[in-house]
Write a structure and sequence with these properties.
Blueprint lengths: L1 H13 L4 E5 L5 E8 L13 H10 L8 H8 L5 E6 L4 E8 L3 H13 L5 H21 L2 H13 L13 H6 L2 H11 L5 E7 L3 H11 L21 E8 L5 E9 L8 H12 L7 H8 L7 E4 L21 E10 L2 H7 L11 H18 L3 H14 L7 H13 L5 H11 L2 H11 L5 E8 H12 L10 H5 L3 H11 L5 E8 L6
Parallel strand pairs: 1-5, 6-10, 6-11
Antiparallel strand pairs: 2-4, 2-5, 3-4, 7-9, 7-10, 8-9
Helix pairs in contact: 1-9, 2-8, 10-14, 10-17, 11-13
């Protein structure tokens, strides 16, 4: 027994990678996060989606001792679980279990990470799902998510950030089981792994896991340098035309020079929250487009990637990125065909609400850049944000995730640190940061719309044609005069549009 303990201590000592701990002696849960510094930028050219495929095959496959089905049957009574999140620069495996079942659960964790079965049947099942996603799901399930991926394709075109983490139709087809085995050896190594652990764990267990993960491949993995966002010349619009699109989904963005690593980031957090915090109704975009004009389901702004915005109410951990951008999300607005079918008085319109909505959203950013936040708006937003950011880490899983993300950005504890930064922030700091970093003259715009709308919308955008808001008579009659006056201003608000292209949906992400 003494020899075993000495071996564990020695292995932990020579394990060169960081261990991030979150001791919670009163917790009844153990959370383990095993993060590799690879992500989709580690995909070899022509094999885009390989990192995702390898990670999925580990979590959706078995070990040398147990099949995937046997594992699921085994862990069900323990209410244990695990998953993986692959993003651009990191891949994070998360394992969670009640402390009473840790000793039984851990051999499965160890088997998945150190001796995955890579079974042929699991490989075909996983790759079929991945192929289906890149061929069909991304285009058919949610135009909102489609527009987000389309914007990133524009922003990072020509770089290793361009492709979806799941890859492309052509690249996924080319991935073999041997590719995955080789990539696991080359890119999931003891030299690029970080261990995170939270809960009521013992020092003996921590030493055990560090000792075990020291047995990962010893390959010297060096990830590619992250691609930087392209700076557009003017406003560059790509309209993706598809059959039976539910309105026009718009996502627009421009490179942002800073990330959470910067002390100025807190200032942009305040401005961003005022403009349109994700899924919050008080933001300017939400109030102007949805609340006042009932144009869509919601409108929000972002100063970093927000993973699974359709499913998450709070910013999730696990997606730290060194290449950043500022973006606006306009959830689907109605197209001309829909409006004409609903209201006889709108039978003559040729373009739906997308052009007006884009103008209004960009104008709201311009107003903040030019006029800044008032002292009152700043104080209210900052007070909200100091409370709201603490909700990001309500669970041990997210607490640990945010600590690990903090290290990526060169911080120790972002949530604690940003609260202190917000406390000393001034309205002058916020308005200066907005003027310094937000741009609307040079943006990429991705619009997913119905084929019936594409040509007319492209013409309207190219020619900066007036785009009056199309209301039914009943709605218009109930609007106050100041809203209608603002509508007239927005309808002719000039955007710096330099180019508009139309792409058939079937030709995207090739």
């Amino acid at each position: 027994m003494k020899t075993l303990i000495l071996t564990i201590l020695f292995s932990a000592a020579v394990f060169a990678q960081p261990v991030i701990e979150l001791k919670q002696p009163k917790s009844n849960k153990i959370v383990m996060k095993i993060r590799f510094a690879n992500g989709s930028i580690a995909d070899p050219k022509g094999k885009e989606g390989l990192t995702y495929a390898a990670a999925q095959l580990i979590t959706q496959g078995g070990t040398k001792e147990m099949t995937y089905s046997e594992i699921q049957d085994k862990i069900y009574p323990w209410a244990a679980g695990y998953n993986v999140l692959v993003d651009k620069e990191v891949t994070t495996f998360t394992f969670m279990v009640h402390v009473d079942f840790l000793d039984q659960f851990y051999p499965i964790v160890k088997g998945l990470l150190l001796s995955p079965s890579f079974a042929e049947a699991d490989f075909h099942r996983v790759m079929k799902n991945q192929q289906n996603y890149v061929d069909q799901v991304i285009r058919a399930s949610s135009d909102e998510e489609y527009s987000k991926k389309a914007l990133e394709d524009l922003l990072f075109r020509g770089t290793n950030y361009q492709h979806k983490v799941q890859g492309t139709s052509e690249s996924v087809t080319s991935i073999t089981l041997e590719d995955i085995k080789q990539h696991f050896t080359n890119a999931f190594t003891k030299n690029n792994v970080t261990i995170g652990i939270a809960g009521n764990y013992s020092e003996t267990f921590l030493k055990q896991i560090t000792s075990d993960l020291a047995q990962l491949s010893g390959k010297k993995f060096v990830s590619s340098k992250a691609g930087k966002a392209n700076t557009p010349d003017g406003v560059q619009v790509e309209i993706i035309a598809k059959d039976n699109a539910f309105g026009s989904a718009v996502f627009t963005g421009t490179p942002l020079a800073i990330t959470r690593s910067s002390k100025e980031f807190a200032a942009l957090m305040v401005a961003n929250s005022y403009l349109g915090e994700h899924r919050k109704s008080y933001g300017q975009l939400y109030q102007k487009l949805r609340e006042t004009r009932s144009m869509n389901y919601g409108d929000y702004s972002y100063i970093e990637w927000y993973n699974n915005g359709g499913g998450n109410m709070l910013p999730p951990s696990g997606v730290p990125r060194s290449s950043n951008y500022f973006s606006l999300w306009i959830r689907p607005v109605q197209i001309a065909k829909q409006l004409k079918n609903q209201y006889a008085e709108l039978s003559g319109i040729t373009v739906g609400h997308a052009h007006f909505a884009l103008r209004m959203a960009i104008r709201e950013v311009d107003l903040i850049v030019k006029k800044g936040l008032t002292k009152e708006a700043f104080e209210a937003t900052r007070t909200f944000l100091r409370s709201y950011t603490k909700l990001y880490v309500q669970t041990p899983n997210e607490q640990l995730g945010y600590l690990m993300d903090s290290r990526f950005y060169g911080r120790k504890d972002f949530i604690t640190e940003v609260d202190k930064e917000l406390a000393t922030l001034t309205v002058k700091d916020v308005n200066a940061a907005v003027k310094k970093y937000w741009r609307t003259n040079n943006m990429f715009v991705a619009i997913i719309t119905d084929k019936s709308e594409a040509d007319a919308l492209a013409k309207s955008l190219k020619e900066n044609t007036a785009s009056p808001m199309a209301y039914s008579d009943a709605v218009k009659a109930g609007l106050p005069k100041d809203v209608l006056t603002e509508d007239d201003i927005v309808a002719t608000y000039k955007l710096n549009i330099k180019n508009v292209t139309i792409v058939d949906s079937k030709d995207t992400f090739q």
